[in-house]
Design goal:
The chain has eight helices and nine strands. By secondary structure, it is α+β, with helices and mostly antiparallel strands. Strands 1-2-3-5-4 form a five-stranded antiparallel β-sheet, covered by helices on one side. A two-stranded antiparallel ribbon has the order 6-7. Strands 8-9 form a two-stranded antiparallel sheet. The radius of gyration is 19 Å and the shape is globular. The structure holds 2',3'- cyclic AMP.
């Protein structure tokens, strides 16, 4: 088995009790931290009865963080326990909840989050939205198409379980060493790591990912699988712009005003008409007019096979 998470496939029934012995975890280094929590790289001994330790990521709250932060982490864990393993969803390996601090152990994704990864693959340091280029030594256009397709597959799995993610964005997709994309960060009550970017605008109930939100979520606080489809369209746009911030140059109030009037983002430079057409379908005003994730997987497969 070793480090390959696919060797640790667990039956959905078994996943309900994955309490993990804390002394079998050796924490190595902090991968990222924010206001409420941190993610730590670690080795876990004896996962699935294996002799070799497995590299994992441990999500936990920080010393002195609020009761809310702990509750949020437990809520996220509860959500993850509902999801049977899928190659495009980050896999829950186990958890330590009997004593504090709570640890949620998930598979390690060596290339980090997709937003950071895409930005690292830009060919010019100071690329702007208009002249962005992919460094083809690191990433090909085919990789980008594959990322979008994989995200749709992961979301089709999540949606099939009637789970609404509410925070689909490239920063919440992780990528493993084989460039496999994995949906992560379940529940909007998630930890907010990136405090210096403006992707979560302050609202009464916390910071909201305004630029990824569908009109019905922004204006009426309504969320559904179809609002996740809208966010998927924004995530597609991010992938094709190597993670530019959506609605470049528009402030959140200006963006909301434009959306109300039917404005949509234009076609990214490195995007063909067919792919843009799929993106635009995700941004239909009426949620019912948007495709399902299963439709999206099929539409994207058609585009990818045609390009070959
Ligand atoms: O781009 P990154 O290295 O990828 O920076 C962030 C940081 O932790 C805070 O979220 C990284 N991270 C989160 N979960 C995982 C994971 N399962 N495997 C590897 N890195 C992770 C993320």
């Amino acid at each position: 088995p070793g480090d390959d998470p696919s060797n640790y496939y667990q039956e959905p029934d078994l996943i309900r009790d994955l309490e993990f012995p804390r002394d079998k975890l050796s924490l190595e280094r902090v991968l990222g931290r924010g206001n409420f929590g941190q993610v730590i790289k670690a080795k876990a001994q004896g996962v699935g009865g294996a002799d070799k330790p497995m590299t994992v990521a441990v999500k936990t709250t920080k010393d002195g963080s609020s009761a809310d932060a702990k509750e949020d982490l437990l809520k996220e864990l509860k959500m993850m326990k509902l999801i049977p393993p899928h190659p495009n969803v980050v896999m829950l390996i186990g958890y330590c909840t009997k004593t504090e601090p709570v640890y949620v152990i998930v598979e390690y994704c060596a290339l980090g989050n997709l937003q950071n990864f895409l930005r690292k693959c830009r060919s010019k340091r100071d690329s702007t939205y208009a002249n962005i280029q992919v460094d083809e030594r690191l990433l090909t256009p085919r990789d980008l198409a594959s990322f979008i397709w994989q995200i749709a597959r992961g979301m089709a799995h999540v949606a099939s379980l009637k789970i609404v993610h509410r925070d689909l964005a490239s920063r919440n997709v992780l990528i493993d060493k084989n460039k496999v994309c994995k949906i992560s960060d379940f529940g909007l009550s998630r930890d907010v790591y990136d405090t210096d970017n403006e992707e979560y605008e302050q609202k009464t109930q916390g910071r909201l990912p305004l630029r990824w939100m569908a009109p019905e979520s922004l204006f009426d606080h309504v969320y559904s699988v179809k609002s996740d489809v809208w966010s998927f369209g924004i995530t597609m746009w991010e992938v094709l712009t190597l993670a530019c911030t959506p609605y470049p140059g528009l402030s959140p109030p200006a963006m909301m005003e434009r959306l109300r009037n039917g404005f949509r983002m234009s076609k990214p430079v490195h995007c063909n008409d067919e792919v843009y057409d799929i993106m635009r379908k995700c941004w239909e005003d009426d949620p019912e007019d948007r495709p399902t994730f299963i439709d999206l997987v099929r539409l994207l497969e058609d585009v990818i096979t045609k390009a070959e």
